Amino acid sequence: MSAAEEKFSVETESVLKVYGQGELEVRALNGLSLTVRPGEFTAICGPSGSGKTTLLNLMGALDKPTSGRVRVDGRDLGELGRRQLSQMRRDRIGFVFQAYNLIPVLTAYENAEMVLRLQGIEKGERRDRVMAVLADVGLSGLEDRRPDQLSGGQQQRVAIARAIASNPAVVLADEPTANVDSDTADRLLEIMEKLNRERGETFIFSTHDPRVLERARRVVRIVDGQIDNDQTRS
User: Fold this and answer.
1) 53, part of any domain
2) At residue 55, does pLDDT exceed 80?
3) Which of 61, 60, 54, 45 is nearest to 16 (CA)?
4) Which position among 10, 26, 176, 183 has the lowest Cβ density within 10 Å, counted as fewest Cβ atoms?
5) pTM assigned to the model
6) pLDDT class for 3, splitting at 50, 70, 90?
């Protein structure tokens, strides 16, 4: 495959995102270009208001840029219709939200299974895949518990299991350690590192947490909607 044909997990090209108009106009992203390759473990950091969450929302097809291009798994999101974008979010993008976003009336198993049900995966295969990912995140034996029967760290593990169950091209995690204590944060990061190492999952974090920055193999710092620094560690 030539360099021109290579598919990256996520690419943004000269992305501009503007909110408001006139004197109230705010440029959340200002011509930002970034390429994240398959299997990277990347943290996006920067001061509050620098554009981190906006960037993740664009990468996850939750929002559209004012101008510029966003590609996920080789597909230009700007060329996709509403149904195709929904399918892209369902099949190729895994989300880990700061507030977990679990469905309270569903068990850990049912929350982790939800994307596979939407994909129409056969029941036996769904069970095999869900039980495997719950084991990967250390929740074996807790499959039948609802979110209110789980600790904050356990709920975040369910969110991680849900994100990876469909084998997405990329997992986007918005401040995934913000609502848990230090020990739980370290365990969650160990789980995500293990998934990245053993399953080749691509992770992109938006974070203020120095523990995430220490573990990330690539750290991209954004200031005023532009890349201020981009470092990759060996």
Assistant:
1) yes
2) yes
3) 54
4) 183
5) 0.89
6) very low
Phi, psi of 104 (to 5 degrees): -65, -30
CATH of the domain at 97: 3.40.50.300
Three-class SS state of 174: strand
Structure-token match 């590192």, residue found: 193
First to last CA, the chain: 25
The C-alpha atoms of residue 44 and residue 219 are separated, in whole angstroms, by 6
Residue 221: domain span: 10-232
Q: Which residue has the tokens 């990256």?
A: 8
Reported as a single tens digit per residue, the pLDDT across 175-231 is 888 878 888 888 889 988 988 998 888 999 999 999 999 999 999 999 999 999 999
> Cα separation of 169 and 209, whole Å?
24
Helix (H, G, I), strand (E, B) or coil at 153: helix
Taking the C-alpha atoms of residue 153 and residue 6, their distance in angstroms, rounded to an integer, is 37
Q: Which residue has the higher pLDDT, 138 or 8?
A: 138
Distance CA 44, CA 53 (A): 9
Query: Is 81 buried (19+), middle (13-18) or exposed (0-12) by CB count in 10 A?
Result: exposed
pLDDT digits (tens, 9 = 90+) for 125-176: 999 999 999 998 889 999 999 999 999 999 999 999 999 998 888 999 998 8
Total domains present in the chain: 1
Question: What are the φ and ψ backbone dihedral angles of 90, each rounded to 5 degrees?
Answer: -70, -40
Task: Say if CB 52 and CB 45 are below 8 A apart.
Answer: yes
